[in-house]
Amino acid sequence: MATTTATITINSTDLLSDELALTATSVLTKAATSTGVEQTTGLARKTTAVVGSTALIDSVVLYRADDYTADKANKVYIKNTSSVAAQYFTVYLTGDRGGETHTPSNALTELGRLYANDWAFFPWNATAGTKEAFTATFANTWAAGDTFTFDGVTVVAGGSGLDENAAAVDATHFPNWTTSVASAVVTFTSRTSRADLEIDSTEAVVVTAGDGTAAIATTVEGLKSASDIYIKPSVETGMTYETMLIHE
Amino acid sequence: MATTTAAVTLTSDLLSDEMSVSATTTCMKAGTTADGLDMMEYGYIDIVTGDQFDLLGSDDSTGSLGKPVAGIMANKANKVYIKNHSTDETYYVSIMLDAQAIGKLYGGDWMFIPWNATDDDKDIEITASGGTNKICYALFHEGKTLVAS
């Protein structure tokens, strides 16, 4: 079993009238067990590159909840490596203020600001949203050479069999979707939780010599994750952060 | 000025090479290099199961378990430390900010985050599970506007 420890030391000789010396060490274990966590992204370092004025700086996604198991003992480390006092990263969660009108200032839930050399270490429950799903139902007359194009990928029919062509689509890797198949029905599921997807025949295009179709029907409406982690630099001139996720 | 340093060390053998990450920051007021955070709130309390409580209130909420942190200044370099002192590994506290879940601190876990109390909704909330959890917390901040009683 892996042993991962996290130690914090907070010291001050002059903040209080008595010396402050606080130390805490935690052995990072899986949720509700004494078994150590076993996975990590490793330490990453990146310099943000922003084009435009400070007012238009966009946030950067650090971790998407979809990629990790929810409600576990995940831990996130983030450090602002800048030495310029005024430069800070703002740390956000997606948040989900259902029913509220978002304004530019509260569209995400702000944790706080990491100024020069500041770091943060916190638990993360990685609650995913809902992944959009739709079906493509192959019907009517298909022939070898007919095509099904979606997500930048074109699948060429190998014959006239509906199940056969559906299976060929299922066997294809799509950049942003996973698939499963049952007879002549292929189910596409988005790789990420988003509320802004709605697929129809203008995105999933069929070209057939005959009257072959692949009718599209949404089966699951997607919803954003409430706990993706974002950071936003305070200046556009390039700021560097380091981060690591230790997870289950 | 006060000089308060916060250091973290992360070590592990879970990779094929040894992992050792360290970082130290001197807790400064926002945007400065010469003026350290000079105010602090500190507490050690039991969190009982069943309800969600404001551990640190960004307003003068009377529901705060800890000392109400009335009028904590927004857009500053405030820092919050929380440790779960429970020894039962199945006990945990769920930490939320502005009703949004951050994560769970299991027995022995700690966290250290910046906190921007931009409005009255930015409370740091806590819910205990498993049993009564013992929590230690500290807030380092730049000042607050006291609310008249």
Radius of gyration computed on alpha carbons of chain B: 16 Å
* Class derived from helix and strand content of chain B: mainly beta
For the largest beta-sheet of chain A, the strand count, sense and barrel status come to: 5 strands, antiparallel
CATH architecture of the domain at 38-141 in chain B: Sandwich
Question: Terminal Cα separation of chain A, in Å?
Answer: 13 Å
Instruction: Label the overall shape of chain B.
Output: flat
Name the strands of the widest sheet of chain B in spatial order: 3-10-5-8
**Would you count the extended β strands of chain A for me?**
18
* CATH homologous superfamily identity of the domain at 38-141 in chain B: Jelly Rolls
The CATH class of the largest domain in chain A turns out to be Mainly Beta
CATH domain fold name of the domain at 38-141 in chain B: Jelly Rolls
Order of helices and strands of chain B, N to C?
Answer: EEEEEEEEEE
**What pattern of helices and strands is seen along the backbone of chain A?**
EEEEEEEEEEEEHEEEEEE
What does this structure look like?
- The complex is a heterodimer of chains A (248) and B (149).
- With 248 residues, chain A is mostly beta strands.
- Chain A has two domains: 40-128 and 225-247, Jelly Rolls (Sandwich), CATH 2.60.120.1050; 131-220.
- Chain A contains one helix and 18 strands.
- In chain A, strands 3, 4, 6, 9 and 18 form a five-stranded antiparallel beta sheet that branches.
- The two termini of chain A are 13 Å apart.
- The model of chain A has no long low-confidence stretch (mean pLDDT 92).
- Chain B has a domain at 38-141: Jelly Rolls, CATH 2.60.120.
- Mean pLDDT of chain B is 86; it is low at 60-68.
- Chain B is flat.
- Chain B has 149 residues and is an all-beta fold.
- In chain B, strand 1 and strand 2 form a beta hairpin.
- Classes of the chains: A mainly beta (248), B mainly beta (149).
